[in-house]
Design brief:
This protein is an alpha/beta fold. About 40% of the residues lie in helices and about 15% in strands.
Length: about 280
């Protein structure tokens, strides 16, 4: 099967951000995915050339919301190109439900996949977000999924966006910070901790720069498991594709994910076409 990673951050080929993507981010993701990936799964990572240019932009919901349309266009294009599924690489699940209306291939996102998995692994879960400003948004997301009663609490990573990026090079400071926050959530009753970011999660799972002390990465704190957000998302996408390809039910088009009529799409023709949306791909 062929899965597209729909990324939320802009990276122009050949630029400074592309250097981070190609030499730091994607090698970490590749290593993390390879821990669980089906050998026949092909993964392609797609980056927009329009949108947010740094982690700090995701701290504020109005900027984040405007940026999310690039993920929608990436998913629509992916279906046309024959991809079997789309995995949105953001814990905030940007436009996830809306994108499921727009395409007829499985669409999965890090946040929903990990939150639902956490509800299977224990009764109460805690979440570590990338910023204090993401706490309310994450609470709303969990409420939307009907799991507020299962939430032990949400805490924010106090590190700057640059420091969180750097964790994929040297994870030692991030690990120390995360352990402290995780223990606060454990004290509130969390039985599993979710690192709420596609940077934070692989930094913990792989512990780059700290492999001598953590050869297997950080998978628990004081006996409480730490979710592998990357693995949860990929495995959920693979499962949904398998269900679809086998002919089993994989989505309901009755209500929430009902697809637009041709008349509705014609009415929305101007907003459904945007020439700014250009992408570049890197196979993992």
């Amino acid at each position: 099967m062929k899965i597209l990673l729909a990324n939320v951050a802009v990276a122009e080929p050949g630029g400074e951000s592309a250097n981070f993507v190609e030499n730091i981010l994607l090698p970490a993701w590749r290593k993390n995915f390879n821990l669980v990936k089906n050998e026949n799964t092909q993964i392609v990572s797609r980056f927009p050339q329009w949108g947010i240019t740094g982690l700090d932009g995701f701290f504020y919901s109005y900027i984040d919301t405007l940026n999310a349309q690039s993920v929608l266009y990436a998913a629509i294009q992916a279906e046309k190109e024959g991809f079997d599924a789309v995995l949105i690489t953001c814990f905030g699940d940007p436009l996830l439900w809306q994108i499921r209306q727009a395409v007829n291939i499985p669409v999965v996102s890090f946040g929903e996949a990990s939150i639902l998995m956490a509800a299977m692994m224990g009764y109460k879960f805690g979440v570590v977000t990338i910023s204090p400003y993401n706490i309310i948004e994450t609470e709303h997301t969990i409420a939307k999924y009907g799991l507020t009663e299962r939430l032990a609490g949400i805490r924010a990573n106090p590190e700057s966006g640059m420091e969180q990026d750097h964790a994929l090079i040297n994870a030692r400071p991030a690990i120390a910070t995360f352990k402290k926050i995780a223990r606060e959530l454990i004290a509130k009753g969390a039985e599993i901790i979710l690192p709420g970011c596609g940077l934070m999660s692989p930094a913990l799972r792989l512990a780059p720069g700290a492999e001598d002390e953590y050869p297997n990465g950080i998978t628990e704190v004081d006996g409480v498991p730490i979710a592998d957000v990357m693995a949860n998302g990929l495995l959920m996408a693979e499962m949904m594709v398998t269900l679809k390809q086998s002919g089993s039910s994989w989505i309901s088009r009755k209500g929430l994910f009902a697809q637009a009529t041709e008349q509705a799409k014609e009415c929305g023709r101007m907003v459904l076409q945007d020439d700014r949306m250009k992408f570049w791909d890197i196979p993992l």
